[in-house]
Amino acid sequence: MKSLLIRDIVLDNKPADILIQGNRIKSIGRRLPKNAGRTVDGRGLTALPPLFNCHTHAAMSLLRGYADDMRLSEWLQTRIWPAEARFSRDDVRIGARLACLEMIKSGTTFFNDMYWHGRAAAEAAEEMGMRAVIGAGFIDGGDPARGAAQRRMLEEVRQELSGFSSRILFAPGPHAIYTVSSESLRFIKAFAGEWGLPIHIHLSETESEVNDSIGAHKLRPAEYLDSLGFLGPEVFAAHCLHLSEREVDLLAASRVKIIHVPASNLKLAAGGQMPYRALTKAGASVLLGTDGCSSNNSLDMFQTMKMAALLQKHAANDPASLPAPDAWAMATAVAAQAFGIDAGRIEEGRLADLILVDLDRPECAPGYNLAADLVYSANGYCVDTVVCDGRVLMLRRKVPGEEEIIADARRAARRLANA
Amino acid sequence: MKSLLIRDIVLDNKPADILIQGNRIKSIGRRLPKNAGRTVDGRGLTALPPLFNCHTHAAMSLLRGYADDMRLSEWLQTRIWPAEARFSRDDVRIGARLACLEMIKSGTTFFNDMYWHGRAAAEAAEEMGMRAVIGAGFIDGGDPARGAAQRRMLEEVRQELSGFSSRILFAPGPHAIYTVSSESLRFIKAFAGEWGLPIHIHLSETESEVNDSIGAHKLRPAEYLDSLGFLGPEVFAAHCLHLSEREVDLLAASRVKIIHVPASNLKLAAGGQMPYRALTKAGASVLLGTDGCSSNNSLDMFQTMKMAALLQKHAANDPASLPAPDAWAMATAVAAQAFGIDAGRIEEGRLADLILVDLDRPECAPGYNLAADLVYSANGYCVDTVVCDGRVLMLRRKVPGEEEIIADARRAARRLANA
DSSP per residue over A72-131, as a string? Predict the structure, then answer.
């Protein structure tokens, strides 16, 4: 079994070495055997768990900066959807690789994705060495024939992804209650149950989604999903900005995971506020995500942690709301646990996912409080080295092949823009 | 006169060389004479104006992470003020140097400061090669004797700073209407007029400031300043979160410069919203600042541009509000003009202040729109090289003496924390 020794790092304020065997942390201590297959010199670096990006559309990094500062419907209808309609399977792979590169370079080793051409995104994550839940975007627009085709697609992607490593998981990705029929939502729930899969959905992003749901079903979005028997601990619901008290209780009671996406919510002026205090008080897990690059436009989870913490203080009119250590936990240990990934903490026996950060930089000085420095002041460039599943993905800020990944993305973008 | 040739950069999408003589841009073109005193190879880099941080308390970088996530009065009274009371003149210089280092490394060459020990902050800016308006913090608490002492302090600091280079300007810094008497505010207005100085003040940061002003003066804060004859084009007012329509009109009509400080406002839950659209519609200049490190905690103006743009979209419920090019202008050309600094644009004859950015990184790919990439996706680490007043302050991300600056800050912080 391959082994990796990370020497002379700081872990929990103490000097330590970390010995990794295969994809797990074998031991943590001082003076570990020096005969590992590979050694990384960690002098001056601090070991931390990596970040988990719990809601994104990786391939959309190809549309970063393609259309900004526009009203939502115009933005989607005149710019984003026409461009996406031109995406080939290869564009999805190229865009997802660019996203993986940006995430690795900012210390993220896991992403919860939703897009089309799931196999292409899976290939990107697999090749780049990341963990991912590949959510197969599902839209039937209430059309039974399209619904049937999408259900076949789900099974196809599920089978395709079963050939990938254990780092790549599959999820049905019903887009939202207003784009997927109740029949398909019921099917997806049963399908996920049958195969033990998570489900990735957008929920209560805008007020019009709420109003349309009340108009169509006489129920608010989470109530409607509850009426279908859809809610459950395997459901990962992104946004959740316009929730009633009853919906907060429903989501928490059914142990749905809430994914907060602050930058995208502000940039698209989605309105409302993710009710962090009410949700956590009711016992819900709240995770963090960047959303896709066309609505953020950054995949740096350090920035997302800060935005989440600051936005909650503003919304709650209380600077003590969502303190830095909680934001850090949401992006690391809480997220790992929610997805059932045995990482998120650096401990013997756990999966060997970790980052080495270099705090020797002005924005991390003088260094009174690591959590505050990480959440409020650092950005992804403090990450020096990234390890995922026992494999070094970035060493001294170098990711193999990055020039080619960027060049491929530029070529694909020129083609999409000129098509 | 010393000359500097920056070769083979990209400027406005075209290849160019920039020849600097002394502290001004002498010529921009191709095939400029290669016999300059010093040459910087700009291949692969894009030249842009540097960023202007229009409201900060540089020395407070020594308190980054010292106290966070606390309610405002408790935070000030139990943590920040006692720590600041222990600041020596030397601590101010050490903290301001750390702030200068962080600003240079994120592409900022100008800061509008407010603090005590003005000479110490001026020394830091002078030594680091930045431009600064050193605002001498003025608080009299309504005490005539203290007011008299503070007026003498103003004159002393003014004289001390007159010996510095043209990069260092001086400003009286009356802290706020609730900490400075009306007599002193009138004195400061006259003093600034006599010497042609800007004035730097906090205005309408919290609702209690507004309520206290109404209680004491039967006027809202900007109305009260107007009643003293204080408002004018030389006044730089930070925050401006709780303004009435009448105050918006007053500030715009008197050409007061508004400094928006989004991260600090969110982090301290200051409430309200800087009324960007109303202010700009009324003709006011709105600039951007980070605030001090204890309430942000970052001095990276890239982050501040993004937060400002996103927050306005959210507040106006309109994703078209404060588009990326406007945020970029607020942090560059608009700010330079407001402070009467002949920079903010890269043009022949102007002061030689510029940054070279490296866009060859995943977060700036594929590169459809430079303004959107800079404001929404980049962070200060895209800045490769910084030139201010014809002098290279950072080359290939290296600033001379940075290890020592960080080490000094850590030593000073340990002393302050253990005092």
Answer: HHHIIIIIIHHHHHT--HHHHHHHHHHHHHHHHHTTEEEEEEEES-HHHHHHHHHHHT-E
| A61:B362 CB<8 A | yes
What digits encode the pLDDT tens for the residues B103-161? 999 999 999 999 999 999 999 999 999 999 999 999 999 999 999 999 999 999 999 99
Mean pLDDT of all residues in B299-311: 98
Mutate to test the interface with B, among A64, A71, A394, A406 (most CBs of B within 10 A): A64
Is A343 inside a domain boundary? Answer: no
Query: Mutate which of B71, B78, B265, B377 to test chain A, going by most A C-beta atoms within 10 A?
Result: B377
Provide the whole-model pTM: 0.98
Considering the domain architecture, whether residues A357 and A228 belong to the same structural domain is answered as no
CATH number, domain of B41, equals 2.30.40.10
Question: Two tokens at B257?
Answer: 């410069």
Question: Quick one: B101 and B196 in the same domain?
Answer: yes
- Cβ-defined contact of B62 to A323 (cutoff 8 Å): no
Q: Is residue A411 in a domain? A: no
- Give residue B176's domain range: 51-338
Distances (CA, A) of A211 to A201, A207, A219, A248, B152: 18, 6, 9, 17, 63
Q: Are strands A131-138 and A108-115 parallel, antiparallel or unpaired?
A: parallel
Supply the pLDDT for residue A249.
98
> What domain count does chain B have?
2
Q: Are residues B127 and B45 in the same domain?
A: no
Same domain, A62 and A203: yes
Cβ–Cβ contacts within 10 Å for residue B416, how many? 21
Q: Are A407 and B365 in contact (CB under 8 A)?
A: no
| Whether the complex's predicted ipTM surpasses the cut of 0.95 | yes
The domain spanning residue A202 has which CATH number?
3.20.20.140
Residue-wise pLDDT tens digits, B5-61: 999 999 999 999 999 999 999 999 987 877 778 999 999 999 999 999 999 999 999
Asked if residue A231 and residue A110 are part of one domain, the reply reads yes
